[in-house]
Specification:
The complex is a heterodimer of chains A (300) and B (349). By secondary structure, chain A is an alpha+beta fold. Chain A has helices at 2-20, 22-27, 77-80, 104-115, 117-120, 269-273, and strands at residues 43-47, 66-69, 72-75, 141-145, 150-154, 160-164, 179-185, 188-194, 214-223, 226-234, 243-251. Chain A contains six helices and eleven strands. The longest helix of chain A is centred in the N-terminal third of the chain and has 19 residues, at 2-20. Chain A is globular, with a radius of gyration of 24 Å. Chain A starts with a helix and ends in a 27-residue tail after the last helix. With 349 residues, chain B is of the alpha+beta class. Chain B has two domains: 1-26, no CATH class; 32-79 and 87-325, no CATH class. Chain B contains five helices and 13 strands. Chain B has helices spanning 2-10, 12-18, 59-76, 140-149, 327-348; strands at 37-40, 56-57, 117-118, 121-123, 127-129, 204-209, 213-218, 223-228, 244-250, 253-259, 275-284, 287-295, 304-311. Chain B is globular. The chains are: A alpha+beta (300), B alpha+beta (349). The A-B interface holds A 35, 42, 126-128, 142, 144-146, 148-149, 151, 153, 157-160, 162, 168, 173, 175-177, 199, 258-261, 263, 265-266, 269, 272-274, 276-279 and B 28-29, 34, 36-37, 171-175, 182-184, 206, 208-213, 215, 217, 221-224, 226, 228, 234, 238, 240-241, 316-319, 321-324, 326, 329-330, 333-334, 336-337, 340.
């Protein structure tokens, strides 16, 4: 009798779990747990894609800044010397459906951003990346998860997010990384991000948002070394409807993987403040010369 | 410690309250103390105390000093009167960013209001060893090194000096400005290590413990120091702004060992061979004891040690986006260029 009741209770629990944990149930993967029974997201993670160049599907481009050439765009003068290093690798994009549903005037603004990339992309100035861009920049980030705290530390610019599990109410002030409030839906960590300013971009391709941005992220471990990451982007000032991006985050496999310093404010001082040195350095680009000039013999 | 044992033998329960070594408090599932939380380390206790003064203040002495500080704060908080005259030319004689011509209203500041209490003693300095409560004198060779560097200073050593007194050349290049002005580290060694209280504002730290790492987050410049537990130091070729920290437990004390500093941080004008050992332990359910020992044989002829209390707070940590709105660095350099142009114009007449 007692066994029967226990079995019945177990079956009810199994049924509830099956409903409550769709992602884990579907993949058949059960993530290791932290001491408080939550899926353990601790570790050093990194995206492996071209999203930071352009979150939309795109073919390769000669450079992020181009000018008209006689047969199509060529790299703009300030980035010419970078050659292939300055070109844009192609990517399938991370936007579900391929394209971002911009309002017409917002699309024009995006194109203008792209045109003026060199002076406009906040990454060039080493500004904090905002969410979700922080998660797919080409730098690792570390999740530090305990029973009482959940922090995300990014190598790029030392950006930090404190994911709160008790909603403090509307963010009192806008910030670059916003206010993150998390809760668990089964085995998925859902993070609601609000209070971001309108200064960050989604990528180096001019994709942008306003300060009405609202991001809902979903982090689900789908294998020992993969977090499935989704972000629903809502910004009625810029987009005609909410849209979604999804990408895997991979665990860095190196045994000695560790976040190091990327304090880039130091690296952009010459760019931002160099003209105010007592003795400014020359700002003229030297003519790139990658091969010796060829002596061409007049053809007979 | 010996006193603790006597107490323990006498009344175990009292010992648990009175002695850090026996302090109770939350524990992690692995049995180690749970030191997590947000801490407000602001204090009136200075790093060093004047030569020849006592290490411990009486309650009456501390109360008098704390009251005087509160009175100054209240006065600085008074509403500005519309008919206030311009400050006297060259400033009002008071030093620092909130003195002189009034760089900041007190509203923006959040320094400490109390002296730190350790082992029941009201401390007059954070430095406890050497016993005179002062950072050891720099070696002559270190002074020579610093004199040579003075031509190209990049550390935050100048932060405490009145801007009007900075040596010639201090405004020539961004690299010659203090690290705090460049948004590379918080000023006043707020990130550390060793983490010192800032006598200005932004004194919060947050500690997070996972199974294999400890995070020490500093509010100013959102500096996150991740301390792997029981790990080896990085190769000597990898130098870091806050050094490379590794941790281990000694009983109920979290010990963090830091080496591999870069040659720009220069805590108290030390070299990149600086070695810092920090010890975090629980004083009581709401307070940590933070103790540190620093050594650098090229700078001091002996190690020195400080300690102060880290009281827990419920205050939230907001984003300290320093670089993103750093108009000051540009304007400081532009101001110097404008002044030079003005001087050149006068000389030309």
């Amino acid at each position: 009798m007692r066994n029967t009741i226990e079995n019945a209770i177990t079956m009810v629990f199994v049924a509830i779990l099956a409903i409550a944990l769709p992602a884990a149930a579907q993949t058949g993967y059960r993530a290791p747990r932290t001491a408080d029974g939550k899926p353990d997201l601790n570790g050093i993670w990194q995206a492996l894609n071209e999203a930071n160049y352009d979150i939309e599907a795109h073919v390769a481009r000669p450079a992020l800044a181009v000018r008209p050439g006689p047969y199509g765009p060529v790299p703009a003068t300030p980035v010419l010397a970078l050659g292939a290093v300055g070109s844009v690798p192609p990517g399938m994009g991370v936007v579900e459906g391929g394209e971002i549903p911009y309002k017409p005037e917002a699309l024009a603004k995006r194109n203008e951003n792209r045109e003026n990339w060199l002076t406009s992309d906040p990454e060039i100035k080493c500004y904090l990346p905002g969410v979700p861009r922080a998660n797919y920049m080409p730098y690792p980030f570390q999740i530090l998860q305990s029973a009482s705290a959940f922090m995300i530390v990014y190598e790029y610019a030392g950006a930090v997010r404190n994911v709160l599990f008790k909603d403090p109410g509307p963010p009192p002030v806008d910030s670059w990384m916003g206010q993150s409030v998390g809760h668990w839906e089964g085995d998925t960590l859902v993070v609601d991000v609000k209070g971001m300013n309108d200064q960050s971009w989604f990528d180096r391709a001019g994709n942008y948002h306003s300060d009405a941005l609202h991001v809902v992220e979903r982090y689900t471990r789908t294998s020992p070394d993969v977090i499935s990451y989704e972000a629903t982007i809502e910004d009625p000032q810029v987009f005609t409807r909410p849209w979604k991006m999804s990408l895997p985050l991979y665990r860095r496999q190196e045994k000695n993987a560790q976040l190091l310093d990327f304090k880039c404010p130091e690296f952009v001082e010459e760019l931002l403040y160099g003209q105010w040195r007592k003795k400014p350095l020359s700002r003229e680009a030297t003519e790139p010369r990658v091969t010796e000039p060829r002596v061409t013999e007049p053809r007979p | 410690m010996r006193k603790c044992f006597v107490l323990f033998a006498a009344v175990a329960a009292i010992a648990a309250i009175a002695c850090p070594a026996f302090a109770q408090g939350p524990r992690l599932p692995d049995g180690h103390p749970d030191l997590q939380g947000t801490y407000d380390v602001a204090t009136l206790t200075p790093l060093e105390r004047p030569a020849g003064t006592k290490a411990v203040l009486t309650p009456a002495e501390a109360a008098k000093l704390e009251k005087a500080t509160a009175a100054r704060r209240d006065k600085a908080n008074e509403a500005i009167k519309g008919d206030r005259p311009a400050p006297p030319k060259g400033g009002d004689g008071s030093p620092g960013a909130y003195g002189n011509v009034g760089g900041y209203n007190y509203f923006w500041l959040d320094p400490g209001s109390r002296y730190t209490v350790v082992d029941g003693q009201i401390r007059a300095s954070i430095v406890v060893d050497p016993p005179d409560g002062r950072v050891p004198a720099m070696l002559p060779s270190a002074r020579q090194r610093m004199a040579a560097l003075e031509a190209r200073p990049t550390s935050d050593a100048q932060e405490s000096k009145d801007p009007g007194l900075e040596p010639p050349g201090s405004y020539d290049d961004p690299e010659r400005r203090p690290l705090g002005e460049r948004c590379l580290l918080g000023f006043g060694s707020t990130s550390g290590p060793p983490a010192l209280p800032d006598y200005f504002y932004n004194n919060l730290h947050q500690i997070v413990q996972t199974g294999d790492s400890v995070l020490i987050l500093t509010e100013m410049v959102h500096d996150a120091r991740i301390v792997p537990m029981n790990a080896q130091h990085l190769p000597k070729t990898i130098r870091r702004w806050m050094g490379d920290s590794v941790g281990h437990w000694e009983g109920d004390t979290l010990v963090v060992d830091t080496t591999n500093f870069n040659d720009k941080t220069r805590f108290h004008e030390s070299t990149d061979n600086l070695h810092v050992v920090e010890r975090f332990s629980r004083m009581d359910a709401k307070t940590l004891l933070y103790r540190f020992t620093v050594e650098d044989a090229a700078t001091w002829d002996r190690p020195w040690t400080g300690e102060y209390a880290w009281p827990a707070t419920n205050e939230p940590i907001f984003e300290y986006a320093c670089h993103e709105a750093n108009y000051a660095l540009e304007d400081i350099l532009r101001g110097a260029r404008a002044r030079e142009a003005e001087a050149a114009g006068k000389a030309g007449k």
